[in-house]
Amino acid sequence: MSQLPPSPRKHLDSPRTRAVLRIQQQIVSAARDHLRALGFVELLPPVIGPATDPGGRGAKQVDVDYYGHRYKLMTSAIMYKQAALLTFDKIFCVAPNVRLEPPETCSTQRHLAEFHQFDVEIAGAGAQDAMGVAEDLVRAAVRTVTEQLPEDLDVLGRDPDAFTDLLARPFDRLSHATAVADLAVLGHEQNPDAEIDWEGEAMLSRKATRPFFVTGYPKGSRGFYDREDPEVPGTLRNFDLLAAEGFGELISGAEREFDHARIVTRMRETGENPGKYQHFLEVAREGIPASAGFGIGIERLTRYVCGLDAVWEATAFPKIPGVVSL
Amino acid sequence: MTGAGGLSAPGFPEAAVRERARSGTAAAFPPLSGYGHALLGATPGAPEAGAPYGAPGDLLETGRLVPPVFMPRRLEKLIELGREPQHSDVDLTTDIGGFHAPLPLYVSAFGSTRAAGDGLGTAVGRQAGRLGLPLVIGENVLPVSGYGRPGTASDGAGAASGLLRRIRAYADELPDGAGGVAVQQSTEDADAEVWNLLHSDPHVQPLLASGRLAFELKVGQGAKPGLGGMTLVDAAEADRLADRYRVRDTLGEKGDVLRCSAPGTVTEEILRQQIRFMRSNYPRVRVWVKLFPGRDVDRAAAVAWQAGADAVTVDGAEGGTGWAPHAFLDGVGLPLGECLRRIGPGAHPLLVSGRMWEGGRVARSLALGARAAGLGRAALLAADEDPDRGLIRLTACLELELRLLVSALGKYAVAELAPEDLWPQPAAERRPDPTTREPS
């Protein structure tokens, strides 16, 4: 498989693309059914706003001239999710995100400049609750694909037995510190203060036969909204879900900072200018619910379920970082 | 002097008071007519005025470099060379915040003063590139001068001197394996995502791939410790910047407006986490931190190094190229010599700036623990004298002085300069907590 997509016509007209997009539709549909059955309300996601998730790993946001004001295309709906909990206790949306990732990510096979997320947020929940919802959601989505679309998996050469372990057993949970130690044993030097690098994630992921959670990332590796553990300062109450077979990260989630002063302080610790977030902070100053939530990369989950070499195969109109295309 | 009412006040700064009575807030600043042309900083007690501008006992001003008579290291060099060593044998190469440099020199940031616009900043960058000296680019070049992306007509008021064009002018001249660019960002520049913009720009990838890109977290600057950047803008530009900066305090009668950046709130934990966040976000980029000469500069430097900063830059109170109130230029912040005394010598990558232009002050700074010295006003003046060769000639002169001084001290590597080379000896002071860089 080439690192870059073929022409749009060839990609759109391919039986493989057809099979992948049918499976993706099944995943989205199953996730919606699963969450609605749990009492979640689906909101239509915002597309632009005065500020968006500053994220990490150096991706640039897209500026939009909004009547002379600098607005941003959403990189994630995180602040809107937290604010939306004033309306409903459990919400989700299927949200488009745009992140101008560094050009080096064009060869990781797992980055897109435009992608979609299931964004889920739960009022009053902790990180463990959110991980439980995420695990059940992934399992439900994979189960319906294996049950209802075996022919499409066959077109892609994906063996449904790859999910036997996923469907039968709970996902493991290991701490960030343990992951760093495991990587050291594997001969991979990982900065203990940082996000686990892509190579490290792939190494851990290749060892696994079903997805697993990495929990408790250090402060300094994530955005201001992941809550610092009051009992273990310096550690965040957050998690990633990494797929098996080397497919890497599928989900990022966390318990959220919801106290106004804490949010402002964490913004400064991540180098942000709180003035940029004044509209969100005005809402937070008057109080927003404590919550936890997560985002699932839909194209990445599709890639894993379909066993694709590259994540761009999981979208009809791929935007590879730095590559100009349809 | 008498005013309209006929009063006089002998012995009192009457003229200054009357100037304030006439001009109001504008009198807090140097004359507006010099804005964009006068390179401000260290106006009080400049040497030509006959008064020391450093603190009493400031070794950068009053100290002397004193060679010993007995020189065992010269003997070592003689044995190594098989002949008597000369000043030309001094090794001046230095690691500056992760960059290799042929000299213990780098070019400091100029801020957004108009003096650095109009191509002068680019001329400095081009010459610095030819010399292989690291170059720091100011935090608000992007918001004020634009980005200067090739192929676009203009993306800001001064796209010709925009951020990317300055970087490219420098990088195009850079010899293999030397130099590097450090780009500043401070609190409000986070809105413009200066670092993310560069990090994701294909034109910057060669610098990134060769390990010659650094991001400098700007905590403050020597000319106005505790304040953010300041520039004068006209009314139209003030409107353009109004939703990004505090733009107010009209100065004078021409309608010039003072644009103030927020200084940014820093605590130990905020500084530590910002550095970690930078290291996590940009693992291939060097992390520099620029401190103003605050009273806890030693502690701040220790926190920065411990969090993994590749370099800490201290801008002494003598530093500055931009706009600053008299009260700050004259009386706020520690002189650089005192900063060096508080931080103390060590293996840490400490970069210093403030009134650097000749070899003696640079050598004294290195003897007090600095790794390298930054040229600010001197670089701008040199390029103003000759946009093509001025900085190159100034640097050649400084290089010769350094070679002569270091060899006279019986040493043949610039890194060997130490407090023992100074008289009087720096007083032993409290030291910051022992620090080691955290594992990466």
TrEMBL record, chain A:
Pfam families: tRNA-synt_2. One of its GO terms (molecular function) is ATP binding. The keyword Nucleotide-binding applies. The keyword Ligase applies. It comes from the Bacteria. Residues 21-318 form the Aminoacyl-transfer RNA synthetases class-II family profile domain. Keywords: Aminoacyl-tRNA synthetase, ATP-binding, Ligase, Nucleotide-binding, Protein biosynthesis. PROSITE patterns: AA_TRNA_LIGASE_II. GO terms for biological process: asparaginyl-tRNA aminoacylation. Signal peptide: none annotated. InterPro entries: Aa-tRNA-synt_II (IPR004364), aa-tRNA-synth_II (IPR006195), aa-tRNA-synth_II/BPL/LPL (IPR045864). This is Asparagine ligase.
Automatic annotation (TrEMBL), chain B:
GO terms for biological process: glutamate biosynthetic process. Pfam families: Glu_synthase. GO terms for molecular function: glutamate synthase activity. Residues 209-383 form the Glutamate synthase domain. InterPro entries: Aldolase_TIM (IPR013785), Glu_synthdom (IPR002932). Belongs to the glutamate synthase family. This is Glutamate synthase.
